[in-house]
């Protein structure tokens, strides 16, 4: 790629990231919960549209229909929760459990097999898309309403730390490929740096009240928190790799072009949809 073109893409990527962070900051700081919940619902709908295009076909009419349905379902649930009606919480618990089961029995094994030439158009992958996106939206929305913005952001930082640490360590020290047939740019050294970064973040953020790490450490111990950090980092990396696998199978570079310089919304939250359901299960299981 020419240097000028690479510089242009980097500037576009940075500008888009700044805009997204600005929007996130505004909706999180809003006095009403509606902006943040609708922002999450829009992200869920866009990611659902992109994910289902990879699993149902890039021209599938069902992908945009499902995206609209996801937005409507999330907006309706937001209305119920903001109004204080949490009767559907038991459904969220079931959806979260199902999402984690799907990761353990379907999505993670797919990474192990790494069959990149296998067709992406599978009903099971489409079902997994809807389930995991609903679980992710529900967990983040519920936490935002019940535990606050700091709790939500502190968990999202787990994904950002894993990604950033893996990227820079991989570029500086990467030698051994992590999953060459799925994502040739990812290295074992980068993955290990991502795991270390997440563990350090959880240990540090556990010192601050009302964060994800502080809530988990209060329920368990520092050793368990360390193990959870390793597990969440692995799921974060797996979420990224799983989307790469789907794109390889579908023969596309990005899930869409909705975010200039970044590809699609699913490209930005592929690790979030793996980490959040597991994090919700680990934090909330005592309350069930």
Number of helical segments with 4 or more residues: 11
Helix-and-strand structural type: mainly alpha
Q: Provide the gyration radius in Å.
A: 18 Å
Q: Quick one: overall form?
A: globular
Unreliable sequence segments: none
What does it look like?
- The protein is mainly α and 288 residues long.
- It has helices at 3-29, 34-56, 62-82, 89-113, 123-146, 149-173, 188-205, 212-219, 222-250, 265-269, 272-284; strands spanning 177-179, 183-187.
- Strand 1 and strand 2 (183-187) form a beta hairpin.
- Helix 9 (222-250) runs antiparallel to helix 11.
- 45% of the residues are buried.
Q: What is the topology?
A:
Blueprint: H1 3-29, H2 34-56, H3 62-82, H4 89-113, H5 123-146, H6 149-173, E1 177-179, E2 183-187, H7 188-205, H8 212-219, H9 222-250, H10 265-269, H11 272-284
Antiparallel strand pairs: 1-2
Helix pairs in contact: 1-2, 2-3, 2-5, 3-5, 4-5, 4-9, 4-11, 5-6, 5-11, 6-7, 6-9, 7-9, 9-11
Brief synopsis:
With 288 residues, this protein is mainly alpha-helical. The protein has eleven helices and two strands.
Task: Describe the structure using short key phrases.
288 residues; 76% helix; 11 helices; two-stranded antiparallel ribbon; mainly alpha
